[in-house]
Amino acid sequence: MQVGSFVPEQTDSALYAMAGDDCSLHHDLGSLTPKQQVDHSENQVLTCALQIALTGLGKKVDHVALAEAFQEAPAHAHLRHYSQMFQQMGLESVPASHWQYHPLDGFYESVSQTLPAVELLNLYMWSGSNFPLHQDQSALDMSRNVNSKLHFAQHAPVAGLPVPQTQIYAKSAIAAGDADHFFEANAAGLMMKLLGLAGSRNVFKVDSTAQCLERIEEYDDEVLVLLQRVLDTGTWQEMTVDLTITPERVEISNVRQLLFAGGKWVGNYLSPELAIADPHREMLYRVGEYARHHGYVSERGVNCGIDYFIAGDEIMITEINARWTGGLFPAQYLQRLGVDQPAVAFFDMVDCQDREALEAFQSEHLYAHGAADFSYIPMGFTPFEMEIEGSARYFVWQIVVGDFASFVEAKTRSLPEGAFPTADLILKEALK
Hints:
- By secondary structure, the protein is an alpha+beta fold.
- It has helices at 22-26, 34-57, 75-88, 107-112, 131-134, 137-146, 149-155, 171-175, 180-184, 209-215, 278-293, 328-337, 355-364, 404-414, 421-430; strands spanning 2-4, 14-17, 63-67, 99-102, 120-123, 166-170, 190-193, 203-206, 224-229, 237-245, 250-261, 264-270, 302-311, 314-321, 343-351, 374-381, 386-388, 391-402.
- Helix content is 33%, strand content 27%.
- The strands form three sheets. Strands 10, 11, 12, 13, 14, 15, 16, 17 and 18 form a nine-stranded antiparallel β-sheet that branches.
- The chain is globular and about 55 Å long.
């Protein structure tokens, strides 16, 4: 059995096993700071939505490892509803008989005891938490390097890759005033990046040394902090792509525009109209070659996400994500379904008591079945009740195809008040 972060287009039979691996790439889960513990737990919860999405993207011969919470009511019935929707849209999908259930704590140890007879074990990334599955220290070391924001910032200029002006300091050096001059030279503030965690939980904009130190108050003095020049979003547009990397080639599989509202990432915009200019394309190929040079490659092809900014012909590379990416999932759904319209992929919240209303709304507007100016593609949901803003809620992951304003109008009309608050923000700010 081959093990790795393979591309979804593989025809081999596969077990998909993914459960919040970002933090354990760089940190010992037994010695996390309080904030890291919270962030890691939240990441594990959100990864559950990815597990559901994998049941839709997979094949009949594939298997998917799911959180055991999906066995419990009402999550299990909701899971069945999602499986039915995947089939109604025409996706092959993974059959219920190939769903495995495992506790989130000790997830991979549990998976290792129930490995099916498949050709591939498809991981989110090589990480410390899933070491019981890959048992490959060299692959783990490679993954730590290629996925490291610090490693990339240090090595990219040598490789001729354009990155924003960057400085790396230990916390003790920042406290001693070593970074003061860098803040003084960047009146608009700096981006602060730490190792570990996904979804921008370790990326912040800071305006001063004091604010920077406040962000890392709970860390020890030796923690390394990356400070990077902020790119003006009035001039620069933030984009991301997924690459497929083999020993012979680097290919661009999709491109997306990142959406922001309230200073936070809120989703991805995908459209056939998002063309990649030739100068950007050539540089993205070079980034893929850089990742391959550092050992991230497979005969079957591995997925690699690249975050970057563009302004005219100029391009700035900010991160390499040598793994599956959150944007890869919606891109694959759109490709599999043959969607040729603009689409928005995003996470949002729904009250737990509104689950049945959501199911009815999803069925009414399901892709290729509705007649409105928009259609709805479900991807996943989380099986846990979370106290958010005074009510028990859960997260839902979806794609809206077509007119997003019509979707917001329809959900406001059909769903209880408070459903999908992020959709309102996207319409109000991000799509402007």
